[in-house]
Amino acid sequence: MCFIAIRLGLWPSILASLTSAAAFAYFFAPPIFSFAIADSENLVGLAVMLVVGVVTSNLAASVRHQARIAEHRERRVSALYRLSKELTEACSEKEIIEIGVRHLHVEFGGRNTLLFPDRNGRLRYPIAPPMEISLQAVDLGMAQQVFTQGQMEYGSTGIVPTVYIPLNSSTGTIGVLALESVNPRRIFLPEQRELLGAFINQISHALERASLAEQAKDATLKMQAETLRNSLLSSISHDLRTPLAAIVCAASTLETDTGQLDEDRKRKLASAISEEAQRMSDLTTKILEMARLEAGEVVLNRQWCAPEEIIGSALRRLDKKLTSRQVNVVMPDGQALVYVDAVLLQQVMVNLLDNADKYSPPGLPIDISVETTAFGLSIAVADSGLGIPENMQEKIFDKFFRIHAESAQSGVGLGLSICRAIVEAHGGEIHATKRSPGGSVFQLHLPVLEAPPTIDSEEKG
Q1: Phi then psi for 117, rounded to 5 degrees?
Q2: Looking at the structure, do residues 285 and 315 belong to the same domain, yes or no?
């Protein structure tokens, strides 16, 4: 009877108890093979047996009912956990919507969609293409009413009724869920209503979290843009002031000359104008290069090049600046070709050598070492200046950063940023270390992407 009560319920168990009592009376209680009971003791035993059977059946049926409730509760908790887990991992509003629509369809059986307001507060369908389980026939008028009033409504736009439920968050109603009521019991039973409410709360909070994260990201980007703009204006105003003042002074001297200046003096003033104009041109070029690199407009023109040609071209560009300084180049013979953008890599070397010249005392040498291995190209540029503090060896590659904001050296702090952007575009890395006993070493490494070409003996001949 317990087995029947657990498997089939209360009334089949009671029926089994009555059947057992009848079988006892027919087969065991004298006279046998008759439902008549002659002995009162057997009658009492039969009654006790019937009562125990009914009570046992009732208890077993209650256990069965509780087990079913626990099973349904576990299923609902499991469904809510799966939804929460996926929503936690979602990063964008699109992912959250897709996860929500899918889980609502699985748990409540109807097609559904999430509607959100546009800038004018009018509800619209999501911009992303609809899923197969998305509900597309929606009464937008009723949905708008639910969004405005914040109360659930029940309507129909076709054969299947639709439930419109507001998505409420801590900031108010952020949208509306339209859900087909294919099986009303899966939606309107108290336990299912609670589960649906929990689903909607999870989705609403996830959407609010994504919105707040996007707002925080926008605010951070705006703050960074404002900081960069201020840094750029500050650096440009400081570094343009000196060459502009020199140009204006020299030009005005030439303009107001009444024949008192000799030819040598005029040449010096003209040379000063040219040098300061070149400084301004270099400054503008660096700003434009950094903007192009950040915008992703630079496409690497990789070709097989000899490292010594890149180093030689960079030294020739700085020939005038480095006239009074010794430059030592250590480069073993027979260096393998490297697959790089020679023009951009040459610009990296020019920036590093220009930095070394600026921040090294006059007369002290600059050392360059070049090595190509099976793993790639390594170049080191070492100066004999004051060196870079350890806590700033990464920060110096930030845009507009200078160790000494106000110094006698010109520049806006973009040279090293450009170097890092070019090196990283090649898949390499660059870093700075302190040199012993004094100075800095800038080391860059570019990986080998493919084996360099070889020249056959016949081609050599």
Answers
A1: -80, 150
A2: no
